[in-house]
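Section 5.1 Outputs to date
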Amino acid sequence: MKLLTSAVLAVLIGCSSVAANEFQNELTALATGKIAEIAGSSEVVSAVKAQNEQTAGYDQAKIDELDKQWRAEADAADQPMIDKVLDNDLSAYLADAQGGSDGLFTEIFVMDAKGLNVGQSDVTSDYWQGDEAKWKETFLKGKGAVHVGDLEQDESTQQLQSQVSVSVTDPATGETIGAVTFGVNVDKL
């Protein structure tokens, strides 16, 4: 029985990794096309640069404090920190980009040099993304970096989607200043 269970588990693991990469080429092409265009927009670049100036001195304790506050607000009626981000110009730009994607983009959020949210089309579950692959595999890798996440079934929408992240670069200096993540509905590719 143990041998059969191990064999079944090996097949399932093998299938899930194939499924995880099934749309890799299409998602990478999207990352270097439409996603890169939005990530390089003046709206994204200027907002990231402005926030980087504000958060440059933040240490890990400050980042953890802000992330804890965000998580608490996510389940609360009063959400001043979340509202401040959702009501900014960048979030409006990202919501418009998502709305104009004909359902291709399920979420878009931009992170600064610390991995903190700068703007977003919808509320994220946390404020600090700096401990996750979406930021580490893009911001830390530099200009032109792309990270394609695994395929996941969204419980609320029942859509099969993947997160695609790219670095944000200041066109004036070539410096990597942040990252952006897009939720992509792969049925719309």
